Amino acid sequence: MGLFILRRLGIMVLTALCLTFIxxxxxxxxxxxxxxxxxxxxxxxxxxxxxxxxxxxxxxQPLPIKYGQWLGVLPGYVIEGxxxxxxxxxxxxxxxxxxxxxxxxxxxxxxxxxxxxxxxxTSVLPVRLANTGKLMFxxxxxxxxxxxxxxxxxxxxxxxxxxxxxxxxxxxxxxxxEYVSGVILISFFATGTFGMxxxxxxxxxxxxxxxxxxxxxxxITISLYAIGYIARMTRASMAEVMTAQYIxxxxxxxxxxxxxxxxxxxxxxxxxxxxxxxxxxxWLLTGVVIVESLFVYQGFGWELVRAASNNDIEMxxxxxxxxxxxxxxxxxxxxxxxVFLNPRIxxx
Amino acid sequence: xxxxxxxxxxxxxMYAQEEKAGKLSRREFLTRTTALGLTAxxxxxxxxxxxxxxxxxxxxQGGTMRIQMEVRGLKDPRTFDWPQISYYAAGWLEYLVxxxxxxxxxxxxxxxxxxxxDATEYTLNVRQGVTWNDGTPFTAADVAFNxxxxxxxxxxxxxxxGRFAALIDPAxxxxxxxxxxxxxxxxxxxxxxxxxxxxxxxxxxxPAHIVPQDFDAENMLxxxxxxxxxxxxxxxxxxGGTLVRNEGHDWWGYAAGKGAFIDRFEFIDYGTDPxxxxxxxxxxxxxxxxxxxxxxVDILDGMGWEKSEVASGxxxxxxxxxxxxxxxxxxxxxxxxxxxxxxxxxxxVVLELGNANRGVPARNQHVGPMHPEWxxxxxxxxxxxxxxxxxxxxxxxxxEMDIISIDDDWRKNSTDAVAAQLRDAGFNVKRTxxxxxxxxxDWTKYPFSSTDWNHRPLGTQILALAYRTGEAWNESGFANxxxxxxxxxxxxxxxxxxxxxxxxxxxxxxRDEGVTLQPYWRSLYRHVRPGVVGGQxxxxxxxxxxxxxFAA
Amino acid sequence: xxxxxxxxxxxxxxxxxxxxxxxLLAVAIVAQIVLSFFAAPxxxxxxxxxxxxxxxxxxxxxxxxVHYLFLGTLVVVVAYIVVPQVMPYGAAGIIGELSKxxxxxxxxxxxxxxxxxxxxxxxxxxxxxxxxxVGMIGFGLVMFWxxxxxxxxxFDMIATHDYLSQVSGLKNKLPGVAVPExxxxxxxxxxxxxxxxxxDIFSRMVAGSVFVISIAPLAxxxxxxxxxxxxxxxxxxxxxxxxxxxxxxxxxxxxxVILLFYLLVTPEIVLTGIPSYMAAFLFVFPxxxxxxxLNSRYYTQPSKRNAIMIPVLGVLLWLYLSIxxxxxxxxxxxxxxxxxxDISILVVFVSVVFVNAPTVFRIVRGLTLDLRTRDxxxxxxxxxxxxxxxxxxxxxxxxxxxxxVDFCLRIGYTTILLGTLGFFGLGLSSESPDWGSxxxxxxxxxxxxxxxxxxxxxxxxxxxxGLNLLADGLREESLKD
Lengths: 348, 552, 481
Known about the structure:
The complex is a heterotrimer of chains A (348), B (552) and C (481).
Chain A: H1 2-27, H2 30-40, H3 47-56, H4 63-71, E1 78-80, E2 86-88, E3 113-114, E4 119-120, H5 121-156, H6 161-174, H7 178-189, H8 212-242, H9 245-252, H10 257-269, H11 271-294, H12 300-309, H13 313-341, H14 343-347
Helix pairs in contact in A: 1-13, 2-3, 5-6, 5-8, 5-12, 6-8, 7-8, 7-11, 8-10, 8-11, 9-10, 11-12, 11-13, 12-13
Chain B: H1 10-20, H2 26-35, H3 40-46, E1 59-60, E2 64-68, H4 83-89, E3 97-99, E4 105-107, E5 110-115, E6 121-126, H5 140-150, H6 160-163, E7 168-169, E8 174-175, E9 180-184, E10 187-191, H7 199-203, E11 230-236, E12 240-245, H8 252-256, E13 264-268, H9 274-282, E14 288-292, H10 296-302, E15 306-320, H11 335-344, H12 347-355, E16 359-361, H13 384-393, E17 400-406, H14 410-424, E18 428-434, H15 436-439, E19 448-453, H16 459-467, H17 481-492, H18 496-512, E20 520-528, E21 532-533, E22 549-551
Helix pairs in contact in B: 1-2, 11-13, 12-14, 17-18
Chain C: H1 11-38, E1 45-46, E2 52-53, H2 57-82, H3 93-101, H4 103-118, H5 124-128, H6 133-155, E3 177-178, E4 189-190, H7 201-237, H8 239-254, H9 257-264, H10 267-272, H11 274-282, H12 285-298, H13 302-324, H14 346-371, H15 375-383, H16 387-398, H17 400-423, H18 435-444, H19 454-479
Helix pairs in contact in C: 1-2, 4-6, 6-7, 6-19, 7-8, 7-12, 7-14, 7-17, 8-14, 11-13, 11-14, 12-13, 12-16, 14-17, 15-16, 17-18, 17-19, 18-19
């Protein structure tokens, strides 16, 4: 087991390295750097000014060197600009250059500086992640029980009217992307159009003070899309279990139907949904991006959109590392969980 | 107000005569006379009118004002490219002069100013008794320091340099020797080699914040030295920012009755999508919407919010670039093509579809009735059939015009409306849309694209910025020696009628050359929650935080 | 011209009937579901006389009620569609006119279903679809939009106005509004109203179907070609090849989709030519696929192989070159007469393929891993068949069931993805009538005008729903094999 996890960690580091290099390369393409200069310097800057702006801030160095500096295996640049100021990668504003360290990269724990947020990545991103964590917590709280209940109810009597009705609901909910359901929910429940102005259409207040009123709509919008998918998986798994020999034996022995469902079928039927739920978490990320943009909730997805549209290089790199981490860790947990939950694998 | 009537500029008296004779509108009169150094009260006095009373009596002291606004990162004020940055920075960095919606200039950190008769020499009288918030007095040296800084073209992105071009030495890209002189502790004299009537207007633009001499842009938040009544408490770019009253600081405005009623400003960023702002308003999370655009004006009206409206010189231009090459040729170098484009588009329809009829139609001349020197030059006739004939004559009937715009509400819609009208006239048109974050990379070089232009007090300012040969912001690639010569002439004329005559020629060139489509003048709107006072929309988006308050 | 009402004179009879029946149906369904929790399991008892005894009691009653109410509602709905065809213009209101506009689609759907049901026993898996109600409903929804796209895109039929022309005075006007005199168009009304730029919402919606129906399946096919061509050898050979390809696939999958789009679908990246190179790489896979497919089958008969392969590959190569060749990008070498298409949204297309391909790869690889241990594979190996022959002619046909199901689901997912791109304003022109962009446009004014956003939202929803139902039906039927 230890070796297995160690190997997975190795792959994770390798993936993160490859991924960040790709992101680094794409964000450092000349047109993207020009965009950066214009958003940071002045939107209506001349071409010559762009060139000196970039050179003065170390963006004109060769790509591998810049990447090495970001990783912390190469010394950070110290450049005397054309305007006479000396700028160094590792300096902190307000402190003399001489005290700055030589190396400052990931290996030194320095994740760089967000050009849009005008702050260290390490002080911005954790806040955003915590916000998204809060959102995801409530999404999971709503999503998992409701998806499982729908799936189990539908799957325990396959082909019944209940099954048909619930399955159709599940299909409709998976067929409704967040940008459609969010829009519909806002127009119904956050405006006075239909006389049901119960919730708020913006969630930025939820960052500091989340309550039912400002947090319900974003949570339910993300949940709806995922509920359908997980419910269908649960239904399929449940339906399969219900046709298994041991269930049939139990029924023939005269065990009551609710007891069969609760004591015998449920445990085995939940193995598949568990892995699905874990693998669904990275998928939820897309939904998080849409919903956080739609409801203006300053979380991870919102930061992603902001960083991507402003070519905030070091923030994007940190975001990539986080998402690789999330994807691979959820995969790992789902694998390990599968082993623990499934008696056949556990015993052998 | 300590204006000395003995030193009234001769031109101001002349303007007063013209105003009384009906030759000059009141707003033109105010812009011109106050730019020459008159106080608004004195200017109103010259024409025998009373200055509008300041409605300050019913404002309650204190409170927290929550303003929906894009919260952007701070940087050197000279390089500010969004008025929203100024709203935050204005808490502690103030202006020399303020520009009012009625077109007049009010002194702020300056006590008064006067101009020489030929508009080449300006005397600035610095307000006495103003202190920096560290206790040191604010003097003429500080003013000179700032103006010298504005004239430094070597600072990347310094847009103040364009406004003070008259004082800049082209050889060194810095201020001319002897252009800025500190006479005594409270007097600065500016001397420019060419007459320039727009210097005071330049000082009233939003990047013209007055910074201390030991200013460090990298560290401006940690060390917020300024003259203003507030201090920054927190700033999270894209999320929000807070200003709080600087309790220990004796702001000069308290004594001058300037207000500063609010104790705490909270700027909250709801992104660029207006529907999110409306949602925030509906959720009662904000008191002020920074700017309401297009159809959202109606929505907020419907919600019972109070609207303030100002007709402005803000506009959108949809211009072909005469120098741009498409497939190895310069499609818009031919004046017939440009005229055909202008003839095929009805400005009123663009206004209706592009900006929900919020504004007045314009005449593709980029100078309008809100400018003091505007001449009444008729527009080109709307004639789609003639347009197609002209285009065919130029041999460009099959050419596919690719019209580029930014991805937002009214600019995109206006461009779409133009594209649809060109299509209706039989032109071959394609539309390309570029996200806001990347649009500005090449904005001056797109072959055919739309750009928004903010209001500027004087018509010559715009023509000089956007249409003079070789200017950095000349996005239409227009190069016309006659135009340049006329513009230089206009800039040196203080006399009204003479100037208008030159302006008529300039506007005719703009029209006949089909330099640009400039379909309408935009009205600017701001909505405030009932009970908020003093938060009127400013014609030039200037932050006037000291006026905000809650009704008592 | 007066504005149209929703149902016109038809509504006087049909509306109350519809309300009544639909309301009762809803009540009955809910009652039935609630009752079913308390009822004994279904037991069909066969009586000695050979008849079957169905369930009685309350539940049985509601079941019968649901059945008849459903039929009744269906009749009314059909009446809404059929009756207007014989009524004069405008008499049957907006719904009637909509139904008339879709007449070619109805005819096509009815003929398709008649033919398919008659010959369903001879049509393999497709025929079996008509044994499943869910499958039939799903297929109907999908084909509705496919036919709409065909009639709009190829014959210029259904749409009533030019989807780009703006008519002054119709900005944000409600459904059924009359257009001013002299406006070009088939009918003198905007059936579903005008949008924010005074364009006809109905025409934009049906024009949007052309975009979605032509891009989504095509992009999915390309993704499948890439996924299959790489997934088969990865699963079949395993080892280093598998490790490397799986690593790359997981690498792409570890990217948040939106970040990938933001990095790929921006004007800057288009400027650098990266999408063109990616297109050149990704779109070569169909060529490889068909080349290998035919070669592995016919390599023992070189003359036959050449006779088949040269024309097939020739046509594919031409298509390939005209797809990747775009004026204004780095790859632009073909003379204009040879360049068949001008895909202005190449970058969108490439990105969608790029995002989907790794998932397909993983599915194909998994299926291959499973199937390669089967007896028929061993038999082919003993016969001495080549590796590619076994992969493409033995394993692939046996993996078709799950692949077809995933294909349907993936088209739906691609449709959603295209909408997401529109939502973030990436890559598509602002005037594009595609549903994602129009939803995003309409969303902005949702607080006062709901009508511009709803038709594209309903359209997108129904297409994706149809694809999901179709996939469900196919899965059910293929499991019965």
